[in-house]
Sequence to fold (447 residues):
Amino acid sequence: MTLLDIFPSLRTTMTPRLDPALWPVTTSHDDRGRISIGGVALDDIADQYGTPTYVLDEADVRHRCRTYRAAFPEAEIAYAGKALLIRAVADWITREGLSLDVCSAGELAIALSAGVDPRRIILHGNAKSATELRTAVDAGVGRIVVDSLTEIRLLASVAPRRQKVMIRVTPGIDIHGHHAVTTGVDDQKFGFPLSHNQTGEAARLVLEQPNLQLVGLHCHLGSQIADVECFRSAIARLVGQMAYIRSDHGVILTTLDIGGGHAVPYRPGDPQTDPAELAALVDDALDEACARNRFPRPQIVLEPGRAVVARAGVTLYRVVSIKTIPGGRTFVSVDGGMSDNPRVALYGARYDAAVANRHPTGRHTPMTVVGRFCEAGDILAVDVSLPVDLHPGDVIAVPCTGAYHHSLASSYNGVGRPPIVAVRNGNVRELVRRESVADLMGREIGI
Ligand code: LLP
Fold:
């Protein structure tokens, strides 16, 4: 029997500890009990930069990169920039030995301006324009992942010199996740299905183009994949396809890109992908598939996005008002919401939240943190444990907001996007400034 069994009321009086699985690696409490990251109190950041603000822990990003490099010493880790691409992140990940995926001319421009070697860039997208393809080949982008027969012809027509190409394949694998991020099944917009020899057809067309060099196959099964077994099937099917391409065309592809999609926890107890476990499985699956097909071991490429930056990010909000609906919930309204975090509305994502500006000693109770936007679905965190003495002006921190927050943000309701500040060794610096009303109005050029 524990103390909690004897005094059940203690359950609500205890201050919940921050779950280290969710918060950046440098998270601690300062001597006043305030949450601090990278040696900087979040409360001071809220005062200095206002709210909402995205805080990014540089040490956490670098730590995730190193963990991947250590788990996969022989593979190429290409960070998927769509999770969060700003120049600082491009710089950190390349210095940590990662390469980079981009999916538009805009992301490519950010990467190049951060000094990323174009040969270490992979370009994705199911509807790249001729201008985007031309910009990419002119910049010397290392590999382009082709997604349709039309694109193969277009690329061949714009590439001035030999361009390395991978073919995006849909291996017919369902990760049983949210439908919006399930991309390995046949009947969706990405890639060429393995069925009906569509991938074989794409390979033939690429190989017919003298200025395209087919180096490998690519697949991306989806996002938030906690059960890594599906990567075993993907490797088996793609290596099988590489063996077909060898027998049909006498060409040995050397690269096998198995995409990203590794899970991170958003709430305590959520599952996460362990890079070491994934590495062991990939190794095993490759041994098996290559032996079965008598195929030489290809170079593996992985494309984690979320798993590199999600946990480095914390978003700060200030409490505006609190109301309890009789017989209903207690709603905490804050000064941000679905424009800086549309993931709840888009995917039903669930988040945690904590008071950051003081050590809350009082009793805790479930509350729902909601945003300032004009929709009832503008929710940030459902049923999170917050102190009953929470009051307007308190700073709320939402962890695990480094991936697909800034990159998905909008200026809905005429509210500008938040700034991004980086913390490191007790210092804070602004990487992206807040979007102002002048920025929003500056785009309007007529009436
Ligand atoms: N590679 C490709 C080709 C991708 O399309 C993606 C993500 C990734 C890699 C990286 O996936 P990750 O490791 O980050 O799961 N907005 C959604 C996620 C969309 C993912 C799109 N593609 C969300 O907020 O959950």
Notes: The chain is about 30% helix and 25% strand.
